Amino acid sequence: MLPDAMEALTDGCLPDYPWKQFPFSGCIAMIAALGTLMIDVIGTEYYERKHAKETAAHETASHEWVDVPSLSEAHSDGHIDAEHIHVVGMRAHAVSHTHSHSNGGSCSSIETLHKHGAHTHVHSNPISADTTAHIRHMVVSQVLELGVVTHSIIIGVSLGVSQSPCTIRPLSAALAFHQFFEGFALGGCISQAGFKSFSTVAMTMCFTLTTPLGIGVGTGIASGYNSNSPGALIVEGIFDSISAGILIYMALVDLIAADFLSKRMCCNRVLQVLSYVSLFFGAAAMSALAVWA
């Protein structure tokens, strides 16, 4: 995609200024990669906060209780002993005595107030490694879907506006092969994320329909479409650059690095060797598509 973007944004049909004065394709891809990083971080923080709120609400509902006799006795005596009231988590202490229960682990933690009669303390429950991994899978699958869908629309339109059968046949074969492996990767991420049935179906249908939709749009505008017009070249180059930046970031950071640096991979030499062989074979196969695509 990035070479195609470079070719489109440096085409001779575009004016020299500014398109030939600056490498826009690489710059746009870099901005897209950095934007993907921001979305990645924001999405992860959003799901962690959401999980924290849900867990806190569940813990409060299931563990909070009030010792009525104790409160009644205290009320009948006309006072409540402040030495038995402890508030933890806001650094406000009724007395110098504090109860805190914590479990070591992730830096992300959930603090929940529990009341036992007039005695209140906090349980600090960190987000488990399994929950963190689940959140990462959800974010990765959604961001990857964004990049794949953007790319699928562009290649669908490109195929739809093609007029020559000599171009359509090899291009269709190459794109089918390419889309198959993109779908394979996206499907694996969606499966790991464990979305609800509706979300899974929606994401699957979105990927499935974008390329045919792009082909339909391309076919509809084919009669008045000029692939060498400045507008068409700029739009194609920008979208290809954005898709390239998103997918480069996703491939290197969220997919390849995450898998190869995982504990499971580091502890299994045979799996490491097989994974590296598969990685280089896949890279060679995808590179070979450049002969036809």
From TrEMBL:
It is a multi-pass membrane protein. The chain crosses the membrane at residues 22-43, 201-222, 242-261, 273-292. The keyword Transport applies. One of its GO terms (cellular component) is plasma membrane. It is found in: Membrane. GO terms for molecular function: zinc ion transmembrane transporter activity. Its main location: membrane. Keywords: Ion transport, Membrane, Transmembrane, Transmembrane helix, Transport. InterPro entries: ZIP, Zn/Fe_permease_fun/pln. It comes from the Eukaryota. Belongs to the ZIP transporter (TC 2.A.5) family. This is Uncharacterized protein. It comes from Ceratopteris richardii (Triangle waterfern).
